[in-house]
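Lecture 7 notes: from sequence to structure.

We start with a single chain of 728 residues. Read the sequence below before looking at the structure.
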Amino acid sequence: MTAAVAGAAMAGHADPQAFVRESDGEASLDLLVRGATCAGCIARIEGGLKADARVTQARLNLSTGRLNLRWTGSADLARDYVDTLGRLGYPATPYEPESEADPQKEDERKLLYALAVAGFGMANVMLLSISVWAGGEEMSASLQALMHRGSALIALPVAAFAGQPFFRSAVTALRSGHVNMDVPISLAVLLACGLSVWETFIGHGQTYYDAAVMLLFFLLIGRFLDMRLRARAGEAARGLAAMQAATANRLEADGRIRAIPARDVKAGDRLVLAAGDRVPVDATICEGEGALDGSLVTGETAPVIAKPGLDVFSGMLNLDGKLVLEARSDRDHSLLAEITRLVEAGEQARSRYVRLADQAARLYVPVVHGLAALTLIGWLVIGGEARPAIINAIAVLIITCPCALGLAVPAVQVVASGRLYREGVLVKSGDALERFAGIDTVVFDKTGTLTEGRPRLINQDALPDGMLEQAARLARTSRHPLSRAIADAAGMGEAAAGVREVPGGGLEAEQHGRLVRFGAAQWMGIDDHSDPHTEAWLQVGTDTPVRFCFEDSLRPDAKAVIAGLKARGCGVTLLSGDRPGPVNAVAMELGIDDWHAGLQPRDKIDRLEALKAQGRVVAMIGDGINDAPALAAAHVSVSLASAAEISQAAADFVLQGDKLAACLVTLDVSRAARRRVLENFGLAAAYNAIAVPMAVAGLVTPLIAAIAMSASSVLVTLNALRLARRTR
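Now the structure, written as tokens:
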């Protein structure tokens, strides 16, 4: 792609120089790169940029398409680097996380159009070809010629359109001085079409339009499935980045409040946070009291009490009250930015798992080129005629097409994904089944995963008469999780009038001339208990406060799932951001010996890394926003349908409903899918061992080669369909 084309690609987008960040003589820029599909693309992009000695870092995340570029020098160089990417064949625009744009959508749509056109062309060309085959000698030469011309009118434009993904990739590779798998594929299609045109208008009338179009159709199926699944891998990081506040309200020295872009907040700035706003950067509360949704950090449902001196983190939601904060960092160095980077790092690490199909395909290009060239030369030497030599070389290129090899994994993924969908499990990552089959350790979050995530009053029978209804009259006016638990326990009833909700404290109201308060121990001046249960207190006038204890119930099938995993040879670990008391109680009840409490997102990552260092293959099952980095960093990850959207996006599997037992089905299906994949590789290898020598020997025409290639694809698909059967 020329610089002019790259400039055109930038049309409608902001000048990249406006997004450059400068610090200590170094400039940095995040770009969204299009067209990168493999490790080779990463090497070309990073190598091409690092050829400039001023570039100190060029790192591309294949899942999200995000390129982090750093260099020494002027910000004006940003345009030059975008032009460099354009010349390499990868158009780039500034990375804007707030837009939640999916960099693969347009490419995916184009591939789907190509697949539809190839399918249409194959169906119509095969209709004409079958007519010629069925007619045999009874069909006149003029009618056969007419059929072939009709095939040409359909196949040539179809091949020109549907083959673009392969042609563009091949041209880009050749311009860069190397070859990839799309080079021999493009060569086979072009030779088959070219020879067919020659045969139609000049030669003997033996055409291969059907072979060319059929080849493209089956290859596009595998390419589309691969892109569709890979495009979903970056959803978690884009969703997390979009959670960052786009603006912030800065308190100026003269007392005025000024709205500024969140990226312009600096450490030391004083910010005003209204109810319903998200914290834009990591900060410390200077003034005001209230409650914050702290699930981003702890994963717990109970709000965090906001008061002066409390450290808060970006992405936390202010539930009530006006707060004044002092920024401790800028947005790029906030906790939410770190979580986003951790998720991206996990997704990038995930892409380094190379499938067996990729490893086998590395040999494809040199072997196929070599065989086709030897076949061409050999038949020229033996027969002395160019036509049979070219036909046999084309047959070799087609019959060795890696269609069966390319479908060996996607076919199993599609069938296994459909089977799991019927079992209530959504598969979100292409190679997740393969990775889940190899796990030996399962790490669980607690709240909302092993437990239901809904507090329940557990000391109702021990409460003095009338106290539950007294508390419920206040609780029915609030949406706090503990208030809802009280209202549920008491049932339907009256709500008190004039209830005031004290931010960070609780509820209070005048009833029968006495002040009734229900809320936190600290608000009432009561020392906290080191108890495994969550608690709240009710005080009527000056009477002794009454303690209400709450517990988060285990999921009904949690114990059976833990036992089932152990029976399948898996170790179990519990990681939670909750206090040690509740975590220990859950671990004891479920029989989990390895548990850790009070963990933040970075701590969970560290625990996973420690398990990996011990040689463990880890699956992570969680539901909170704070679990998203751990879900992305684990070898494979599972989330629940009730989980935060970010956690669902980061996970490879999403369990529908409230049944954890589906993870056992997922493990069983994943292990069966791994066996089907290995069997498919064996079938593909056996096919090539038989078919290739026949093509080299001239025993196979290009059409028979295309049929054989298609038959091998059907064979691996039928083998994959065995997964659809439910077993006891």
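The first strand starts at residue 21 and ends at 23. Keep this in mind for problem set 3.
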